[in-house]
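At this stage, I wrote out one protein, both as residues and as discrete backbone shape codes, and that material follows here.
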Amino acid sequence: MTDGEEYTLADEIVARARIHARKVVDEHELAVDLKALEWEVSARARCRAGACQWHADREVATIVLARRAYERYDWSAFAGVVRHELVHAWEFQQFGESGHGDRFREQAGALEAPRYCDAFTEPRYVLRCRVADCGWRATRHRASKPVKAPDQYRCGACGGEYEVEHAVSGRTWTTASGYGGAKAVLGDDW
């Protein structure tokens, strides 16, 4: 920063994340090369609090953190997101790949990093099984294929048919044409 420039919220997020990452790497002797780690903040992310991208050609990992998650989580929860993404960076740097398998779970456990993060935004859509005694439910933030054409998919638990609800309006549909109809009726409120 030069004179006259102001720090942004993204600058704050990256600064706090870098400080926390350095502390985690030092305290846990985690073999992450912090010089081969880049940081970004996403102002658009709605459902993922963080992501780690591997650039094999440069052997650099980029940790992307969601601004909305930072605004909604307390620091301890957000620090857990940073540790989670550090585990991915460690896997990428050490093995060239990363996932949520046994190796990830073991390292995440050592760092007290969550395997999954709590939602920080309300979902736009709720999928619910129509079978009376089932109770399966899933949420979506985007209009995915199962949201747009629920009659082409089945319940994740019992295999029954399900319906989709537009969370804000309460409108429901069970077919692709029902999706189109709800979208048309809601117009700007979609």
In short: The chain has a mean pLDDT of 93. Helices lie at 9-28, 67-72, 75-95, 102-111, 145-148, 176-186. The two ends are 41 Å apart (CA to CA).
